[in-house]
Amino acid sequence: MKKTAIFGALTVAGLMAGAAGAATLDDVKARGKLNCGVSTGLAGFSNPDANGNWEGFDVAVCRAVAGAVLGDANAVEFVPTTGKTRFTALASGEIDMLARNTTWTLSRDADLKFTFVGVNYYDGQGFMAPKELGVSSAKELDGATVCIQTGTTTELNLADYFRKNNMSYEPVPIETNAEAQQQYLAGACDVYTTDASGLASTRATFEDPSAHVILPEIISKEPLGPLVRHGDDEWGDIVRWSLNALIAAEEFGITSANVADMAAAAGDSPEINRMLGTEGNLGEMLGLDANWAVNAISAGGNYGEVFEKNIGESTPIGLARGLNAQWTEGGLLYSPPFR
Q: What residue ranges define each of the domains in the chain, with the CATH number in brackets?
């Protein structure tokens, strides 16, 4: 097991060495589209609709970057990836960025050689069980069979949690959320564990969501966010500040409906002027047009609009802002200054 893990890390590192030399921004511009890695399907986050058009919270980040770089939020090729394939796809250059419910960890930074550009969703791992199982706490799961996606931090957290609480479990390994849903509903496992947002997303697709309960324990910190390869800091800056533009836009009251008017002429706020390109040269610093942030925000709205449209309390997913509220509202959401 240990040798396999080491070999896998070295393989990704080797692929990384070959892909890092090229400037991703130049590649994206020459190609005329952004290759963005997403999940294989997670309702509310990244999922193709009935017509095959990708939509969701993570998809919106891809579209914002495409808008910032290419001026066209639809110039995106979405590449579905699993927990196992996502890092190889990024390291090899198959995708330009990964926007797929991926947790920021030290080993992924330092060992796999990726750069996380920020957090777009603060999450934590939880458990979902059928109501008929009769459990109300994760500490009642001794001896349970657990559906778990391989190649994820949830797999490691699960082992830690059961060991810490002197409990045993039998893992039922799966590769995609769709497979987990099938196995769980078929009774192949007693409970399903993944990020709490993923549990809410999965439960919302069930014929009878009320027949399933998400247990109260959150057993980990899961800061989820987009990532790029080490060695191309200029591209990392673009993805980072495209995400920051969505976050700052919500704080500043900039929306998809008013961004064009606010960008038509300089206003009273120097920082808003700098972000929207009516003052200063921030776009030039990024190697982009002056209206890069306008295009990013126009792609799907500010962070709050993206959240409410795809996963908010008025959607079937039904997630409250919680830690993902703006810092001014008691949450952790915070953009560095546009200066």
A: 2-122+223-329 (3.40.190.10), 125-220 (3.40.190.10)
